[in-house]
Design a protein that fits this description.
The protein has one domain: Alpha-Beta Complex (Cyclic Phosphodiesterase, Chain: A), CATH 3.90.1140. It is 29% helix and 35% strand. It is built from four helices and ten strands, in the order βαββαβββαβαβββ. A hairpin with a 2-residue loop joins β9 and β10. It is globular.
């Protein structure tokens, strides 16, 4: 099973983001004329990944549930930043500002998952919400055109993450689907 740990979005933020995505989708045809287009993610799948765990065994799942249940961290303020793209990966995203609380939570999760056999990534932590993926390998720079046609950067609602979740990911022809395996509360200040 493919697992990851993430923060779910508050409803108000998901609504704001859905409005932005609607505007982007309406400008997609002009920006991506001649390309294979984008595969847009569904609002119910939006989350902020704190650690991707990849393929896991049933024993690792049990370990994760126990270890993540021991994580004690404050509720974390979350603020979405600008829209951007990872050109090489062909991903359009909404950036998440790394607050001290989000960074501390992510570090605690990395420490909790280590005894379960998961190695932390060596790349810097760049939290984001994936909005779309390029369908074609040769047209990833078209994401920049889409952002240029978007009419400026949106302003997003700030929210407080009051929990983090252990998700299981299922890959299918229409993209990934996520199932919540367990919820873990954060400490209210």
């Amino acid at each position: 099973m493919r697992l990851f740990v993430g923060i779910p979005l508050a409803d108000a933020v998901a609504r704001d983001l859905a409005a932005v995505v609607g505007r982007l989708r309406s400008s997609e045809s002009a920006a991506l004329r001649g390309s294979d287009g984008l595969r847009w993610t569904e609002p119910e799948s939006w989350h902020i990944t704190l650690q991707f765990l990849d393929n896991s065994t049933a024993e690792q799942l049990d370990c994760l549930k126990a270890r993540l249940g021991e994580v004690r961290s404050k509720a974390a303020p979350v603020l979405l930043g600008k829209l951007g793209c990872f050109d090489r990966a062909g991903v359009l995203f909404a950036e998440v500002t790394v607050t001290p609380e989000v960074a501390a939570l992510q570090q605690k999760i990395l420490a909790a998952t280590d005894p379960c056999g998961f190695v932390a990534e060596t790349r810097p932590f760049h939290p984001h919400i994936t909005l779309a993926r390029s369908k074609g390998q040769g047209h990833r720079t078209d994401l920049r055109k889409l952002l240029d046609n978007a009419g400026g950067q949106p302003a997003f609602t700030r929210f407080t993450a009051r929990e983090f979740l252990l998700y299981e990911s299922y890959l299918g022809a229409s993209g990934a689907k996520y199932e919540i395996r367990q919820r873990f509360p954060l400490i209210e200040a």
